[in-house]
Amino acid sequence: MNNIHGGGRDPGLYCPDVDWWLQCADAALGLRGTTGSVIAAIERGGGVAGGDHEHVTDEQLGWGHHTRSAPARYRELARTWAATPSWARGILEVHYATRSNWPKGVQGRLGRLSGVALALCTADELPALLRACEHGQERTWAPFLRAAERAVREAHAAFAVARGSEAGTARSRRVARVAEFAAVHLPDPCPDDPISPAT
Q1: By the number of CB atoms within 10 A of the CB, which of 22, 142, 164, 179 ranks highest?
Q2: What are phi and psi of 50, to 5 degrees?
Q3: Which residues contact 92 (CB under 8 A, 6 or more apart)?
Q4: In angstroms, how far is CA 189 from the centroid of its own chain?
Q5: Using the 8-state DSSP alphabet, how is residue 84 labeled?
Q6: pLDDT tens across 154-167, in order?
Q7: Region for 111 from its dihedrals, namely left if φ exceeds 0, alpha if ψ lies in -120 to 50, beta otherwise
Q8: Is the separation of the CB atoms in 121 and 144 below 8 Å?
């Protein structure tokens, strides 16, 4: 199974934790969405069934290599997301948004970076980019693709930096809690005890 964003699992273009945070976190905590009503409509003969769901990975659903609980993962990622710069969050939100109905040629030319490439365009550049995608004018669409890839890589790097600083802060909090617990609940080391850490 391959994720639509994670072709080859290039960490600069795909992070399973960002994907989980943006696509699955609320559902993993039991928050309800509109999927149930859509399924009910399909079962009653309404709506449109089908679609490609093969891109959903075990990691997105929280079944993968992650051993922490969904609430713990949610808390960790919420802190990291809050520490991520707003420009990076915006790029990542666009990058991980799912969409299946692109203008003609866009998905074929820009691939998984379609949303970011279009989002980075100015209103004046957008018509030219859409024409270039439709007619295969690589000289016009290729710079937008490169800019989108660079933006996504920089956004993932900013998320990783935020995660690293959050991880350091979380470790410091854990060490402080352990020290506080030890000070309150454990007896003082006995200086005469040969196995005491004080000796």
Answers
A1: 22
A2: 110, -165
A3: 18, 22, 84, 152, 155, 156, 159
A4: 46
A5: S
A6: 999 999 999 987 65
A7: left
A8: yes
